[in-house]
């Protein structure tokens, strides 16, 4: 995809010569002021199509974060449900013990170590680093999501469960139709925060050589031997991605909040 | 009002019911029979165990001893599938407990739909299959008239849509309480009285054999108590069997067919409203009534 984009851009440029023009202008301005700044930026972005590396980085970062978020929410809901149901009925003690131990271990150890264990040991035979990164952060995130959703469960009044059960719904039907939707809704703001954190924290995957946005500056530095420009550019890109995501998530959050005011209909 | 026949099997039979919370013995050996059509009003001081008694009747609290015979099954036995029996017992809570995440209409239709949809679908499919079989047989037997009859029946059969059926019934119930226009709103926009009336018809939607009310008007502003009591009275007059915990003594006297006075986890006295309210025997009953009347 991105390779195609690069060839397309180059094809267009071969007619228009914009790249050469920019290089000229940049060189002129720099020499006029006695700078090297613009040239550095040029080398960190346009030269040899390095902009495509950032793009690839963003795609990989988002891929890891989104897949990790799905794994995290799925496993996290499961964990918190076990803990919650055990608390209410006392019938899932062994499972709840496992869930709590899992949460404690994951939250109590550095994610870098978790990553290395999964990357170099558990999935050593896989060569899809992005997937391994996503799984690592999915597992890591699930423990935090479990805590968030557990709090969400606790914020649902017990009368909701009792009303469901008194009508003859079984435990699972009550959970699925009544408790989980409310718990999730109450957990939405902290869940979104967790996702934003995930987008930034996944930069750790660069540690094992996965090409996410956080790894790109190093790659470019090794070619241009200029350190600051690619770092600043990557930082700005992270900021832009996070701001856009925050905006989107806020809109979704508002939609949800509205749903129990007037039915969102009239 | 329908006669109460005490020669029949009671609908609900409580035998030696016991409930403890930690070291707090809340219910001590409670026994009573509740017959079809009875409106049993439970009164007593706060903390005397009225709510716990009611909640034990549908096992929202697991009894720690004794039996609760409903539909000829001891539902206090933890091995029975309590859900099946709860489907026949409605409960109305002090705090309404409408489902916050569902519209008013969905609140009412949710339980019947979820609980009965599989069964209904199965029955529908069985009907369709039976018709197909009968048609085949009729054709093989050369019975033209019968075959065309069955064909017509097959063609006229509406598509399976239990959800629509549930919605229809829920709308009817809403119409009954004059809240059709609230079908699509969420409970948070309703007044307390409206919430409780919706909660009552939500329980009715399951066509229960018994309704349990735990202080249904205690959380209401005074001006809304009337509308809720009127609805309960209506349902009572239709013959519903009821157990009602309440502090509304006027209502208890008017609607109740029997009054149970609870004190420290036992039935201290029971009798007709006239007996209990006009001529109480137990000094504790007298004391309680003096305090509340
Ligand atoms: N879930 C519970 N856990 C511990 N104690 C409880 C619980 N529910 C009720 N109790 C205790 O049981 C006693 C009776 O309570 P309750 O049945 O609510 O009385 P009433 O409804 O008559 O006011 C009280 O002392 C109360 O503190
Ligand atoms: Mg009570």
Please explain how this structure is put together.
The complex is a heterodimer of chains A (266) and B (293). Chain A has 266 residues and is mainly α. Chain A has one domain: MetI-like (MetI-like fold), CATH 1.10.3720. In chain A, 80% of the residues lie in helices and 0% in strands. Chain A has helices at residues 2-16, 18-33, 37-45, 51-89, 93-108, 111-122, 129-155, 158-166, 171-201, 216-224, 228-258. Chain B has 10 helices and 10 strands. Chain B has helices spanning 50-57, 82-86, 104-140, 144-156, 162-176, 192-204, 222-237, 249-255, 273-278, 283-292; strands spanning 12-21, 24-34, 39-44, 65-70, 73-74, 89-92, 210-214, 241-245, 258-263, 266-271. In chain B, helix 3 runs antiparallel to helix 4 (144-156), helix 3 runs parallel beside helix 6 (192-204) and helix 6 (192-204) runs parallel beside helix 7 (222-237). The relative contact order of chain B is 0.17. Chain A binds chain B through residues 157, 159-160, 162-170, 173, 177-178, 181-182, 185, 259-263, 265-266, and chain B through 58, 60, 83-91, 93, 95, 97-103, 110-111, 114-115, 184-186, 188-189, 199, 202-203, 206. The structure holds adenosine-5'-diphosphate (ADP) and magnesium ion. The site of magnesium ion has 3 residues of chain B, from helix 1.
Descriptors for this entry?
heterodimer; A: 266 residues; mainly alpha; MetI-like fold; 11 helices; B: 293 residues; alpha/beta; binds adenosine-5'-diphosphate; binds magnesium ion
Query: Rg of chain A, please?
Result: 24 Å
Q: Assign a percent range to the helix content of chain A.
A: over 70%
Structural class of chain B: alpha/beta
- What is the count of helical runs of chain B? 10
Low-confidence stretches of chain A: none
- What fraction of the residues of chain A are assigned to beta strands by DSSP? under 5%
Q: Count of DSSP E strands of chain A?
A: 0
CATH architecture of chain A: Orthogonal Bundle
Order of helices and strands of chain A: HHHHHHHHHHH
Give the overall form of chain B: elongated
Sequence of secondary-structure elements of chain B? EEEHEEHEHHHHEHEHEEHH
